Structures are given as C-alpha cells and as structure tokens.
Amino acid sequence: MKLNRIKAVLDEKGIKQTWLAEQLGKSFSTVNAYACNRKQPSLEILNKIAGILQVSVKDLLADEKAAADKALRSAKKQINN
Predict the structure, then answer these.
(1) How far is the C-alpha of 14 from the C-alpha of 67, rounded, in Å?
(2) Which superfamily, per CATH, for 6-80?
(3) pTM of the model
(4) pLDDT-based confidence at 69, cuts 50/70/90?
(5) pLDDT by residue (tens digit) across 17-50?
(6) Domain spans of the chain?
(7) Rounded to the nearest 5°, which phi and psi values hold at 66?
(8) Cα gap 66→7, rounded to integer Å
C-alpha cells in the first residue's frame, strides 16, 4: 500500500532522490526507502520535504480512496467497451 507520493512528486518535478537526500541531510538509502514506501518519514521530515519541494504535505500523501475509485472507473469503462 502506498502511503506517500514522494517518488511521484520528485518525478513530476524532475528532481533526483540524491538531491533531496542532500537537502534533508539524510542518506540516499533513507530517502529511497521513503520514496519507495518501505519506510515512512516522520511528520517533521514530511514537513521538511514539502518545504524543499515547494508542495503541501497533502500533496505528498497518497489518496488511496481516489486511486481505488479511479481504478474502478477504468475497469468499468473497459468492461463496457
């Protein structure tokens, strides 16, 4: 289950995980774990990431219900075609 959208936001902005790691003062492996949802950042780190990337914390959080609704609509559309 995806709990954050850090990787998606990085990709959208064309920013590398190594750069974010440097800005946070964290190791690449830690930032990679956040981006791949293997580990979740604390609220403090999430706020720092949001500030660095110039997005809201909400933009970094996954919206599982919206993703599930989108997948359901797509499946229904494929069935009806």
Answers:
(1) 22
(2) lambda repressor-like DNA-binding domains (1.10.260.40)
(3) 0.77
(4) low
(5) 999 999 999 999 999 999 999 999 999 999 999 9
(6) 6-80
(7) -65, -40
(8) 18
